[in-house]
Amino acid sequence: MATGGRVQFQWDNFPPMPTNRSFCTAAEGADAKLYVIGGCEENGVPIAAFEAYDPSANSWEKLDAMPTKRAGPAAVSVGQKIVVLGGVSVTQAPLDAVEVFDIVERKWTQLTPLMAAALGIAAVARDGKVLAVGGMGVDTNPQDHLRSLDIDNDRWKGLAPMPTARYATGIFMRDDKLYVLGGRQGKEPCAAFEMYDIPSNTWTKFPDIPSKRVFPQYVMTESVIVSLGGLFTQGQDRRFSGTTETFDTGKGESGRWETHRPMKNKRADFVAGVLGEKVVIVGGLSVGGPLTSVEGFDLERKKWFNLPNLNTPLCSSASLIYQGRLLAIGGMSAGPTNMVAALGIKK
């Protein structure tokens, strides 16, 4: 157990998944179960595994596999359904497949594909629909698409395109505004920060993220976005970052980014979330391989503090805030793992 201000954190026991995997995706269903989707096996080949954790039984169940094997898809929970979009195929090409799992009928349905195959899509649920942003196409070019999917009627609708084409972005929904941050254009990082207003179907450019990195993490409190870590890329130079930057969206496009003291252990490809109004980061990749390091950032005091380390080094995990805990799901350690690390707040 460790303390961040008045908040006390602790690791909770969580049973491992049936399947070892990295680069999977997770979503919480309307039935309060945790669903883990796809990923890669030990040879880096995408899989169709689909499993659910039932908190009432504290156990996992293997469900019918997805129709399409894939790694790194976008996945969102909409009503009684889990919607899975795009991702990486077994040939390492982007996918256009859109598949829906009905958690009541316990079966998969294939919907109308994406307008263009894409990996690195970001997606959220809104008013019973899916909003899907960006992606990288088969031609490796970034996409500026913003699309809405009505899953009940299996109908796609194109919305105003992003000002900046990109993939693998951070994405947050607050009220009727969608914030899209960072991402990549080919192998290069993108610093663009843009906001989509749903009622007016328009985009507004916000100040760019101060530092360009690949494999960072972004988290958001009620109004503050935090940009964390990643990997600086300049030509052949690759340097891990401890970057900590914040932006208050309450100030709109006239706001400014603030840069704070860096995290203690530089890292990329890690898990991050907000627990008890503190920013928490878990594991990741740094010089020498995956990390066990866990840290917290106090947004009021602008100060990092140490938290109990993982028992096993971990990177490339799926992440989710689930029942008041930050989960690091699967990922890479010595190879793909089935572990689920759960950091919570002591009550």
Automatic annotation (TrEMBL):
Organism encoding this protein: Branchiostoma belcheri (Amphioxus)
Tell me if Ribosomal protein is a UniProt keyword of this record.
no
Pfam families in the cross-refs: Kelch_1 (PF01344), Kelch_KLHDC2_KLHL20_DRC7 (PF24681)
Q: What's the protein name?
A: Kelch domain-containing protein 8A-like
User: Cross-referenced InterPro entries, in alphabetical order?
Assistant: Kelch-typ_b-propeller, Kelch_1, Kelch_domain_containing_8
List UniProt keywords, sorted A-Z: Kelch repeat, Repeat
User: Which SUPFAM superfamilies has this protein been placed in?
Assistant: Kelch motif
